[in-house]
Amino acid sequence: MPSIEEISDTLKLLSDKSRLTILALLKHKEMCVCDIVGILATTQPNVSQHLRKLKSGGLVRETRKSQWIYYALDVEDKPYLKPVIEQLPSMQMQIDAAKPQVCT
Questions:
Q1: Which of 2, 20, 40, 92 stands 20 to 30 A from 29 (CA)?
Q2: Where does the HTH arsR-type domain lie (predicted)?
């Protein structure tokens, strides 16, 4: 059972629009930083900073594939977030409309 402090810290992470949008994207599929940058129309350092915070908060995990790192949701141990994640709007249209990015 999570403590009030753990839940509070997790919810603080979700209070940022960019981080919440990243979670909505990752609800659909795992993605690399360059894919997220293209959809959010922001900089790679900005997205990386948000992903670092989400990872340290235990909300995303990373997997290395060749030279790229892919991020995915990792909230199975946080059942109190399930209703929040389910209520996030679909980002499938934005994912489908995004031009495939070539990570550099």
A1: 2
A2: 1-96
